[in-house]
Amino acid sequence: MSLTTLSSVLFRLFQYIEGANLNYSRISMTVPVLTSIVPGAGPLHSSAYFVKFYLPTKFSAIPPLALPELNLRPDSWKSHCIAVRKFSGFARDSNIVKEAEKLALSLSKSPWANSTSTDSGYAYSIAQYNSPLRFIRRVNEVWVDVSGPDEDSCKSRLMAEF
């Protein structure tokens, strides 16, 4: 993903939360901000991505619609299971892929081996919890969807490290 394109998306999201929506509502920023990577969906088989953030509860039932020129759309996720790997520092191309690989390696050595789900269409997502102006004690996560034989399967092992 290019920095210019990502900056454009983030600027449009910023405009949206500052009131560039059909009812001119200001929306409190929430965390995490998610960047979901879709491999091979971009031009010349490059990766594409979606940037998302959670709406405050106040707006969850009826989200304010973005102004059409912002080219943003609401998305809702059904309940699903994810595997998570936490990492610090700034989330950059150079360390995101390494962290995703470490998560994949951990999963391969766990009861969750071969359980990654492609239902979402994303290879993985990066969750960023801090403002870009925060330089120390930053928290990020790499997320990957996992599936099990039934709904309760992800509840059985809430935390494990391999």
From TrEMBL:
Segment forming the signal sequence: 1-19
Pfam family, one: SOUL
Keywords (A to Z) from UniProt: Signal
Domain of life: Eukaryota
Matches recorded under SUPFAM superfamilies: Probable bacterial effector-binding domain (SSF55136)
Entry annotated with the keyword Signal: yes
Protein's UniProt keywords contain Repeat: no
Family: Belongs to the HEBP family.
Name the UniProt record assigns to this protein: SOUL heme-binding family protein
